[in-house]
Amino acid sequence: MSTYCVKFLHPGGEHQPDSRSSDHKAWNDGPHRRKFMVGAGQIIDRDGGRPRSSRISFWGEWEPPSTIVHSFGQESRMPQYVHEPFLEFPEHHNSLQNTDPFVFGDRFRYTVCRQYARGNPTILRDLPEGSVILFGSCVGGKFALDTVFVVDRGSFLWNHESRPEQVEGDTDTIYLDATINRLQADKTYRLYSGVRYEDRKQFGGIYSFVPCQVLNGEFSRFSRPVVDLPDIGHRQTQGYKILSREEDRSKTIWKEVVRQVLEQECALATSIKMPARVGERISSVATGRGDSCVPIDKLIVC
To answer: CA torsion 105→171→23→34, rounded to 10°?
Structure first.
């Protein structure tokens, strides 16, 4: 069976507070960045075993607002701020960024970013089930990992005319309002769901996860784990690279990534609790028309 393993590079800069004295980060309307966040999730410890519940810290993308609950001094590759994400009704709706990949809630999701190049679909628009996407950034000339996404069954195409009004498991429409309803979908994109830990046997034992650390009464500060693989191309700073086109090879890469992540004192977050909503729904104003959504040509920087 043909599956892919893809290295996917997105911007690695860290989100800053709105001002030096602020504990708030407003909804991002500029280039994508990462946040170092805290939340509750299901994790697999370095000792293995089944997932257990824990408070965790982790790196990821969350473009809606967040509260900065702690700050550190500046240190190379380490986070400066700890964000607690939430979703609120914004004061304006112009060019609010989407969150992609989305690692919260029932399952991970990915849509839009780099699914087109020069107006034509890329391989990322039509990945087969079981494919592995390694989301990360070039930090200090190395590939720093923040999300491992394994493509589940049941992906589907959508555009402005067929925009989904409900996504399975998104009971409070947090995902829709944070991502799908932020997009002016002038082309047809694929919405992927990530393989959950409990469904791993259907995919040869592999599943989606986020590197994390357990919170034990204090904020666990850590740099994104560096992944070193043959032909991974450390000098690449943007775009994507196909590392494998074979199922067995893709699984081997996934296992090696897990080994390296665990060796760098991280656990694996297999699910992360959805951020809370504050105030009314926003999807009614972000319909995909006009300037309520981020235009696609701005998305390509992700």
So the answer is: 40
